[in-house]
Amino acid sequence: MELFGWPDWLPGREVPLPLGSAYTVQALRDAQRAAMDRRSFMTFSAVSLAGLAAQWATIEPDRLTSALDGRTAVDPGLVDWLEETSAKLTTLPTEQRQHTIKLMDAHLATVTDLIEGGGHAEHVSKRLHLLAASLATTCGWYRFDQGKHFAAGKLWAGALQAANAAGDRDFGAGVLSDFAYQSNWIGQPNISVDQLGHALSGTKHPTARSLLFLRRARAYAALGERSACYRDLSDAETALSTRASDPAPGWCAWMSPADLAVDSGQCLLDLGRADEAHVRMAEGLALLPKARDKTRGIFLTYQAKGFLQSNDVEQALAVTTESLDLATRIGAERCVTLVRELAPAFKLYRQVDGVADLIERVRAA
């Protein structure tokens, strides 16, 4: 397979627009078009978008209408409301966010309209661009979870444009980290390593650096580069235990010892250290809060893979079934895909009670 450097490796092999405020709106518009297939457009353009607009009209009828028409600049009060509403949407539990993605899409479209209208004070414009970056990132993750990698990449490219226009280098590092995670996910860990190196140069917060080191360790493990992997795991642990004077950036505020433990376990599993991997994964899953059920579903599939490698079929079956149940409940297609990829390994153990049922469930999922 031919490999491409940044930015040519983005899904679809399209060349992203040059970074610069002149291209921000175009990048966001392109992302929104890529994120909407025919069915989703027909489903929400008439219902969800109209409903959201009606809600806005009730709360801020004059300022919203005049701002969208370009007659007046957006004032800070309206931006306050936009930020508060976005925060509520993006922090909902996973099983609720699957029902609100159309509202987030509509919210991103409206923020893009306000940016395009222009005429704002500099501090207001910066807030709008950061809000667009946050929404585009969240919307991109939803598409990634649904296996829509092209749409996810386009949304993250828009987020990178918006973060750049706002002058937020730290947020840009987070977006690059998302691209790197996607690259590793689709089997291009060498590209992931490269992108995470760039991302690490753009952020100083220890929590952010811990996440970036951990993701790069995963990529090194996939490449079989033991020394580099162990070095980054050590750096990730050191960074996460470092006290910071400022709160962690929003894009990595969820990073926790649970993530460090499970992903460290996955690294060890990739490097053939199955027993140690089991211990680390169990530690991490025990620490993970219920609010992060999507992450739990993914971590469970990592654990199941480890049990299968150790020929512990009963344990593998139990955690795989738990993962599939959870993924089905919260609508996490990425978790279902991981379970589907594990299913062939169970075919050797059809005689074990429950295996045939699991294979049939996966086939129907």
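Second entry:
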Amino acid sequence: MYEFKEGNFLSAITFYQKAENTIPYISDEIERAEFYFKMAEVFYHMKQTHVSMHYSSQAYNIYKTHDLYSVRRIQCHFVIAGNYDDLESHEKALPHLEQTLKGARLLESKNKRIYGQALFNIGNCYLKIGELTKAAKYMEKSILQFKKSKEIGDKVIEC
């Protein structure tokens, strides 16, 4: 994780791949999900889209069985949608972004920032599709959420 944070992606991949060999011995499925999510992030930043989506899906399949991991489920969909965005398959990104919006709406009272991120990402997707009116609507809503987030001081994990 240190190497990833420092931008040394190749080194990070080497360490992650070594760690992946121990996954069968890890009995805590949330720890496995966290590992898969980190792998999804690394491969996303390296623009290895299909590998990133694979790991994100693995993480999501574990998180969806645990109610307390709603933010991580949303973040998994963000990663998958971001990968589709990189592939310029914006129509394929939309269902994932709609899932994030649905999940984030349920968290709105507790976490305005994640809700703002969901609104922004779906607005950005509509912008890339060329649906400017929809894009503007979501972007305006996201700005309001980010302002509310700053007023309350939401603390969330960045995606």
